[in-house]
Amino acid sequence: MQLSLEACGVPKDDEKASLAAHHVGVAHGMATVLRGALHHAGQGCTYIPADVATRHELSLKSILSGRASPALSDAAFELATEATSHLLAARALQHELSPATRVALKPAVVVDLVLARLQQHGYNLFAREALQPLGLRLQASLFWHGAVGTF
Prior knowledge:
Elements: H1 2-7, H2 15-35, H3 37-42, H4 50-55, H5 60-64, H6 70-92, H7 99-104, H8 107-120, H9 135-148
Helix pairs in contact: 2-6, 2-8, 6-8
C-alpha cells in the first residue's frame, strides 16, 4: 500500500496516510490468505497462522484435506474479524486523509467484499461459491466509493 501512496503522489512524511495504508495492507493480506486457502491446500500448503490453527485445534492435515470443518470456519472467522478491525481502523482516519490517499486505499473495497462473501458462506474457506469473481458488485462498489470519495 505504501507504493500505492507514492504512486498517487502522497508525501512520504504523511503519518496518517502511512498508518491507514498499513491497516488496509494488513487487511488485504489477511483477506488474500483466506480467499486463497482452497488453492493453497491444493498445493499442499497453508498460510493460516499456526497460533490461530492451534487455538481452534485445527491440524495441518485437516486444512490440506480441502474439506470444510467447524474448526476451520472458526479460524477463518478469527482472521476475518482481525482483518475487519484493520479496515475499521483505516476507515476511522478517512476524514483526515487527502483525496489522493483515499484513492490509493481503494483496495479496501475489495477486502470488504471478500470478507462479506466469506461471512455469507459461514466462513467456509472451501465454498466454491465464495470464491467466484466479484464482477459487477465490485465495479459498482468501486464506482460508488469513488463518487463519494471513500474507501
